[in-house]
Amino acid sequence: MTTMDLHSMTGAYALHALPDDERAAFERHLAGCASCAQEVAEFAATAARLALASSAPARPEMRERVLHRIGTVRQVPPSAAPLERVRRGAARGRGAARWALAACVAAATAFGGTAVWQYERAQDARHDAARAERQAEQVAGVLAAPDARTRSVRVAGGAGTLVVSAGRDRAVFMASGMPEPPSGKVYQLWFDDGGTMRSAGLMDPGRSTQTVLMRGAVDGASGVGITVEPAGGSRRPTTAPIALLGMPA
Question: Which residues cross the membrane (predicted)?
């Protein structure tokens, strides 16, 4: 499946019309494609609006017309037998109408709920893509900063490089060839604030090579540490650091 094929699936995805394999492939693409996320959000929002019930007030002249007809149209009294048939027919008609109305409401509710869910998913993907784009810009800003300084270290059989920009007050950690942490564990980055460790974010446990924008400002930290923590991270280090780096001069 080509990227062009994936770009053409926005409408079908918004209407929940893709088979499972294509939907899964498209959602992986959607997480990194801001233009598709925007298009899906627009399609889903339109579908949700169409699925919701709407009403419009009657025109003022309609009331006058109905009142006029009441006073001028003669009503013919029905006989008892035809009236009974009419009543039975009306009862059957009302029953059928109620079933039809219930079916329509159920269908509109189901479709509306699906459309709203798809819209929320698209919005989430759009926000994720925007956040990833902002982080990429911040990483590039730190790496290209005129005052950027670096320090490298061996980490668990791989290599790590710390890049710090004092002017931007941000740091980036670049890992290469690091093995995956044990199952259920994650590498966590820390700023060393004079012996007190402050969490600076988690690394992706499924990637051996990655670039991480460390969370928060450097704020005068004296160094950076890396520990192995339970999935989701810890408020304080629970293991001895596998690497410690002083801030580059």
Answer: 96-117
